[in-house]
Amino acid sequence: RAAEFARLKDIPPVTADGERMTLLLNAGLALDVHHLDEVGAEGIGLFRTEFQFMVSETLPRLESQTMLYRDVLEAAGNRPVTFRTLDLGGDKVLPYVAAEREENPALGWRAVRIGLDRPALLRYQLRALINAAAGRRLRVMFPLVTTVAEFDAARALADRELEWGRAHGRKPPSLVEIGVMVEAPALAWSIPDLKGRADFLSIGTNDLMQYFFAADRGNARVSERYDILSAPALRFLKRIREDADAAGLQVSICGEAAGRPLEAIAFAALGFRRLSMPASGVGPVKRMILSLDAREAATAVARMMRYDMPTIRGELTEFAASRGY
Ligand code: PEP
Ligand code: MG
How far is the centre of ligand 1, averaged over its atoms, from the C-alpha of 96 (Å)? Predict the structure, then answer.
């Protein structure tokens, strides 16, 4: 299998019926970027910036943040990198960022909520990203945005930092794209209002499904009770894709599910064309895509999406097996 995946790495992921897909990597360390060549991904769809903060004993300084982001951009070459701003809180707590114990951390003070309440932290990170991307394309997205107003506020911080750089004679990025993760159901219902505000969307299915099913993603007892391959979840994702298309917003999926071939069949069937995943997923997903009849899969998945079934996993597995996917 490994040899087969290695052979596929330079072949573009086009389905058997001609749909061009884009496969991207999830990463969190400068080292991960080398997987781009190894597996043949077209860029980094999710760079989790909190890793640097989690392995550090003190708040990483502006220079060390800048250095990491510059290394990542350099290693990626002309392939796009989407940086996600700090996603702390929930289960990711730092000893040097004061936080109270919370009853429900996943529903608490986390991600962009911390960034908006402690803007110095987020502004510093944005400054580091802007510095690192001098003369290059900069793509940044915010985690767990719940309302359009929160997105506007986060974007305003980025604009302020860009202005600061200009005022200080810094070389700006050649292009700045500011996007948002769709992880909170409320934001998933706000996509028409993000038109003209956000530059792109990325669906974090790990969190989106946790909030959709009201089931802690880290608690197997409840998280394994519900399946993303079920009618309610797939209908929800389909609507997000349709709203994104209607708003002219590029949309990708960057949750772990995107790296599993069976789930990727369903996502392709719902019309998603950009998937970001762990390096280990790229070979298997690409192998599936190269033989996939996306139109047939769309019809088959639509037929399977019935509310009386807790999951379509069994049916979809049979369908995939019968087609040799
Ligand atoms: C997600 O929630 O799906 C996601 C990609 O972000 P993380 O797993 O880092 O929360
Ligand atoms: Mg998330």
Answer: 23
